[in-house]
Amino acid sequence: MFERTREDIAAVRERDPAARSSLEIFFLYPGVKAIRMHRRANWLWRHNLRFLARWISQRAVRKTGIEIHPAAKLGRRLVIDHGTGVVIGETAEIGDDVLIYQGVTLGGTGKDVGKRHPTIGNRVMISSGAKVLGPFKVGDGARIAAGAVVLEEVPPDCTVVGVPARIVRRGGERVTPLDQIHIPDPVAQEICRLERRIDQLQAEVAERTSEHENI
Q1: Burial 45-64 (b: 16+ CB within 10 A, else e)
Q2: Which DSSP state fits 134?
Q3: Residue-by-residue DSSP string for 56-112
Q4: How do residues 21-74 score in pLDDT, each as one tens digit?
Q5: CA-based angle 76:64:27, to the nearest 5?
Q6: Helix 30-46 to helix 2-15 angle, to the nearest 10 degrees?
């Protein structure tokens, strides 16, 4: 437990330039507090003390604004930055070194039993307001842009944006941090491609019309 807490604090200090001290992170950061409370709730859940587990998780919601189901599986060095509005469902699984921003939902798409929430790989970044919905895998090193709605599997080392999310970048093993402002818009790109094609077809029609008139 203490080793995990030290890892959590070190991960926050590495990723958050506003963090000033370990004490500040331990006592005041809601993401660290929510993860710490989840570990207790998860232990109780696995030992069939389900009511107490849910009680702790609901206390965590009131204290932090972050809702993590006691059965969810969290990896090491998870950082929930700010965290307000984050929801992590019952069968969600999160790998190591994952970064999650505020307003993220790892949810399901219906009332099916069994695995119904996503599995997040290692070194994944999920930006503000993103929704990842369904029992699929988000590959290692993937980046999910702010506001994206992910409804299907994301390959490793890919960046996805939009509603529904589309892949806009594929990288190697190492992916550079996502620029959350200058994000390519796949819909706008497709519209531009269609406009260029229309211009090309109009030029061809005009050329053939001119040939027929000359004849």
Answers
A1: beeeeeeebbebbeebeeeb
A2: S
A3: HHHHHHHHHS-EE-TT-B--TT-EESS-TT-EE-TT-EE-SS-EE-TT-EEE-SSS-
A4: 999 999 999 999 999 999 999 999 999 999 999 999 999 999 999 999 999 999
A5: 70
A6: 150
Q: Among candidates 125, 138, 39, 128, which has minimal Cα distance to 92?
A: 138
Report pTM. 0.76
Can you read off the two tokens belonging to residue 166?
Answer: 């589309």
Give the residues of the chain that fall short of pLDDT 70.
1, 172-186, 214-215
Amino acid letter, 175: V
Residue 211 three-state SS: helix
Q: Residue 55 contacts by C-beta under 8 Å, 6 or more apart in sequence? A: none
Contact 92, 69 (CB under 8 A): yes
Query: Residue 211: beta bridge partners?
Result: none
Spell out where 81-197 has E strands. 87-88, 93-94, 99-100, 105-107, 119-120, 125-126, 131-133, 137-138, 143-144, 149-150, 158-161, 166-170
Asked whether 144 and 126 are in contact (CB, 8 A), the reply is: yes
- Which amino acid would we find at residue 170? R
